[in-house]
Design goal:
With 432 residues, the protein is an alpha+beta fold. Helices cover 21% and strands 42% of the residues. The strands form four sheets. A five-stranded mixed β-barrel has the order 1-2-3-5-4. The chain has a five-stranded mixed beta barrel with strand order 8-9-10-12-11. Helix 1 packs across helix 2 (26-38) and helix 2 packs across helix 3 (43-53). The longest helix has 19 residues, at 413-431. It is globular, with a radius of gyration of 27 Å. Bound molecules: zinc ion.
């Protein structure tokens, strides 16, 4: 076989082995394939043998029959050679610049019985919205805390019959708030409206009225956005069928529009029964993002960027050497904040305390801190914060650097312990 032809097969073998097998080069694979062919082994069998020999799991030669199907709900970050069977929920072209050259790509949403995943295709697809497809040899990437499926040059897309997916793949999923995650597709859920406000937003140059706020059930809370006026009121218990889940920095939220039905539920949820979930740190670390939860732990590190900082007067971002990423060199405004690593023995998060919370923890105002000399200020931060135990309430956000806990409320742990003890003695009195 001419070397050029063999190279295509070498690439195919490499596409299976890459990411699974270390220290293997295309030259090694080529040499091995060449040797099998010289012995008279048929090409397909030679390729399979090389893959097996190196511990590759299976091989896709385009028909992808040997590649095992993965459910969208089971997709992880940075997976290679993925095969899924799903419905194309949406598909749109998009022009991007690659090395200064315009290039047409396609993006959309795929859905199977386990959930949905956004995808990007670098090539034109000969399938369309609504089609059921088998996608083989795709790979996953993380983008702003959510998994994305990428369809590249080695990806094979084939149209399938609707019957290959079970009926549930097309129905909203019954769930409760703590089960919400960004790639679960549309949901069927009963919640109480804890907060709602009307907002004007601009979508594609058009003004739109939306209603956003917070929903709750017996398992937790979640933000929501309603894209039309469903006449919702604070305190109403509503049944949403067909709401979709969006996520921002890993925090899932429910979004619903004219494609969803929203009705007053027969069952009533009392807002008082909506808990603030208390989590161990490892749970917060493992979760993509959480809204209004509690964690507690010890401050094991005061991180850089704590204390007095300068902010851009235009966009409020932190300045580095008096320079804003967007607005260049500006006259900064002094602010104070704390960024601490907090650990409970099972894991740690990086927690951010804004000015109000920092002033609370330090027992000093920003102006008082400004008048201190820098050494005294950092000594005071160490004394008042380092190694203290705090109970934090807030939102846990994920980006590519990890988890940031944006604190909304903080209490010293020992105060909390006393309160817990009082509660306990009350319980005991009741029991007596
Ligand atoms: Zn700025």
């Amino acid at each position: 076989m001419p070397t050029e032809d063999l190279k295509i097969h070498v690439q195919e073998v490499m596409s299976v082995l890459e990411g699974r097998v270390d220290n293997i080069s295309a030259d090694d694979v080529e040499a091995e394939l060449q040797r099998f062919l010289e012995y008279g082994v048929p090409l397909a069998q030679a390729k399979q043998t090389v893959i097996k020999k190196h511990g590759g799991l299976s091989f896709s030669n385009g028909s992808s029959a040997l590649l095992k199907r993965t459910l969208i709900g089971d997709l992880g970050m940075d997976q290679r050679s993925v095969k899924i069977v799903a419905k194309i929920v949406s598909l749109n072209p998009k022009e991007i610049l690659v090395k200064g050259q315009p290039r047409q790509i396609y993006y959309g949403l795929l859905r199977d019985e386990s959930g949905t995943v956004p995808f990007t295709s670098w090539n034109e697809l000969d399938v369309g919205k609504g089609d059921i497809v088998e996608v083989a040899n795709a790979y996953t990437r993380e983008w702003q805390g959510t998994i994305q499926l990428n369809l590249g040059d080695r990806t094979h897309v084939e149209k399938k019959d609707e019957s290959v997916l079970p009926k549930e793949a097309f129905e909203p999923k019954k769930c409760v708030i703590k089960d919400l995650h960004s790639n679960m597709g549309t949901v069927d859920i009963i919640t109480v409206i804890l907060d709602i406000e009307k907002k004007e937003v601009e979508v594609g140059g058009e003004k739109k009225t939306v209603f956003s706020g917070v929903l709750g059930d017996e398992t937790g809370k979640t933000p929501f956005t309603a894209w039309m006026d469903f006449k919702l009121k604070k305190g109403d218990t509503i049944h949403i069928v067909g709401g979709s889940i969006r996520s921002w920095k890993g925090v899932p939220q429910i979004s619903f529009d004219e494609n969803a039905t929203v009705e007053k539920a027969e069952k009533k949820i009392n807002p008082k029964d909506v808990p603030v979930r208390r989590l161990m740190m490892y749970e917060a670390v493992e979760h993509p993002g959480l809204y209004d939860v509690e964690v507690a732990g010890d401050v094991i590190e005061i991180q850089t960027g704590s204390g007095l900082i300068m902010r851009c007067p235009e966009c409020n971002r932190m300045l580095f050497n008096n320079e804003c990423r967007t607005h260049g060199v500006v006259e900064g405004q002094v602010d104070i904040r704390l960024r601490c690593s907090i650990d409970d023995g099972t894991g740690s998060v990086s927690a951010i305390f804004d000015r109000g919370l920092s002033e609370q923890l330090l027992g000093k105002t920003l102006d008082e801190c400004k008048n201190m000399n820098p050494t005294d200020l950092s000594d005071m931060i160490l004394k008042e914060v380092f190694a203290h135990q705090f109970c934090l309430r807030g939102n846990s956000l994920r980006d590519r650097f990890g988890i940031t806990f944006l604190v909304q409320e903080v209490t010293e742990k020992d105060v909390d312990v006393k309160a817990e003890a009082q509660l306990l003695s009350k319980d005991l009195e009741v029991m007596e």
